[in-house]
Design a protein that fits this description.
This protein is mainly beta. Helices cover 9% and strands 21% of the residues. It has 1 helix and 5 strands, in the order βββββα. A hairpin with a 5-residue loop joins strand 3 and strand 4.
Length: 87
């Protein structure tokens, strides 16, 4: 996936202070986010991601989208595709 630039971004998240950039699986770039209030109360952050052409082919063939979360507790998350004009 390619990190997108979400419309109306309110801030950019960078790598954590203890991030090991020398580890081959731990590259971390900047992530533009929009801060919004969650329907259940509290804050929520939304970012945009774009599948590569190869990933689009895999999705069309029925492959899933995986989500990885660092740590040992899984926070509430959501994945969706906005309708045209809603992005």
């Amino acid at each position: 996936m390619i990190i997108g630039r979400i419309r109306g971004a309110t801030r950019e998240l960078g790598k954590p202070v203890d991030w090991d950039e020398n580890h081959p699986d731990q590259k971390c770039g900047s992530l533009a986010i929009v801060d919004v209030p969650a329907s259940q109360g509290g804050p929520m952050m939304i970012s945009a991601w774009f599948p590569t052409p190869d990933e689009v082919k895999l999705l069309q063939a029925g492959q899933p989208v995986y989500l990885s979360v660092w740590g040992t507790a899984h926070p509430p998350v959501g994945l969706w595709v906005p309708a045209m004009g809603e992005e």
